[in-house]
Specification:
Shape: globular
CATH superfamily: Cytochrome c-like domain
Strand content: under 5%
Structural class: mainly alpha
CATH class: Mainly Alpha
Distance between the termini: 70 Å
């Protein structure tokens, strides 16, 4: 009887925790987000824009990206789990509501275009082996556009140099201004050499993308 009561009590506490987490989730407003993207468009609103830190690479395309992933990424910059001086400063300036609104805006901003309709190229034997070793499709989906959880990113078609830098960042430890702290991605990335990460990045970049860069009015 005591064991049953303990089990029921544990389930009630767990249920209350889940309910509380859902209750605290901030709902984003895409229309409101349109007025909060001034700090985003200078990089993400220009096709082919390149960052120069920690090396030169094209910034990721975020129009059409999952809003929950954008919230997760910006929150990670704000907490210091993702280290990048510019992104940390931007994230620090945003409230949780701001982040939710910006994320909702960019998810909606990529809708209406041609979704990844082109046939995906077949990976080489080397890349197939690397994909299997990393278990990449287990989270990002067979076409890398349909992650199993909306808090994970769509990565197909992102610039190869960005993907390579992002993957390397999960291997970085003890650097105050660069690196990403994520147990799952860290465990995956650390299995591979830089050359292998580049091969993975090159293949994923070649896949048909659902994310895109939509030039903002200021830069058209």
């Amino acid at each position: 009887m005591n064991k049953l009561l303990l089990t029921l009590n544990t389930l009630l506490v767990a249920s209350a925790t889940v309910f509380s987490a859902h209750a605290q989730e901030v709902k984003g407003d895409a229309k409101a987000g349109e007025g909060k993207i001034a700090m985003c468009i200078g990089c993400h609103g220009i096709s082919g824009y390149q960052s120069s830190f920690p090396e030169i690479y094209k910034v990721p395309m975020i129009s059409g990206q999952n809003s929950k992933f954008i919230v997760s990424a910006l929150s990670a910059y704000k907490k210091g789990e993702r280290k990048h001086p510019t992104m940390r400063a931007i994230a620090d300036s945003l409230s949780d509501q701001d982040i939710a609104d910006v994320a909702a805006y960019y998810e909606a901003h990529g809708q209406g275009g041609a979704a990844a309709a082109a046939k995906a190229p077949a990976p080489t034997a080397q890349v197939t082996e690397l994909l299997n070793k990393g278990g990449c499709v287990a989270c990002h989906g067979d076409n890398f556009n349909k992650p199993i959880d909306p808090s994970y990113p769509k990565v197909a078609g992102q610039p190869a140099d960005y993907l390579y830098v992002a993957l390397k960042s999960y291997k970085v430890e003890g650097n105050a201004t660069w690196g990403r702290a994520n147990g799952i991605m860290g465990g995956v990335a650390k299995q591979f050499s830089h050359a292998e990460l580049k091969a993975l990045a090159t293949y994923v970049a070649s896949l048909p993308a659902e994310v895109k860069t939509v030039p903002q009015k200021k830069f058209r």
